[in-house]
């Protein structure tokens, strides 16, 4: 995780961002700290990456890359405003025993690359390039399932789909093409399908450890669905960071070993 020390909305690269909306950095830091303490209270280790001035979106650590089974794929961002994040996160990876490798095509890390058991679900349509999916498959040795997104509000896969455990997901069907929905229904017939009201507060931008699901607190319907499915939902308020188009998952780069 990276603290939102320099967080602001000074450009608009997704529909959630409005440069005329002021950002309360102190509130963003407090909300982020609550998320970090929630993870630690649940017994998880949280490593911190130093924020860099001039990189206001660096708080969205999930986009930094994909670290799994000894492979560290560093992000190649679509927008020039975020290119410096790749340098900062690659340096952190190298300093912590990971050998960062790059893809030739745009990939935005765990924003679009979500690990489910022995496979990777990979989003495309707005950020990560379809050709990067094949590169990720080669680098990780894992099957990659391509899923096309169609609604610009759900510009990354992690805004429209949550991995709950090795066999279970939740997702918002309207964010995907017909073909992608058919793939998801074939692979995950028992998936939780989330309503628009919860999707529109980025309720699916959540993190699960297989039992506890840390999710945006405004997604109350999703919380009820999680409870009925046997998970323990834990709501957190990241409303200030939502101004940049991210929430719980966006702020969290998971390391799979």
From TrEMBL:
SUPFAM superfamilies per record: Pentein (SSF55909)
Gene3D superfamilies xrefs: L-arginine/glycine Amidinotransferase, Chain A
Coiled coil: none
InterPro entries to which the protein is assigned, alphabetical: DDAH-like
Keyword Hydrolase: yes
GO molecular function, one term: amino acid binding
Keyword Hydrolase: yes
Entries under NCBIfam families matching the protein: DiMArgaseDdahMtb
Protein name: N-dimethylarginine dimethylaminohydrolase
Lineage of the species this protein comes from: Bacteria, Bacillati, Actinomycetota, Actinomycetes, Mycobacteriales
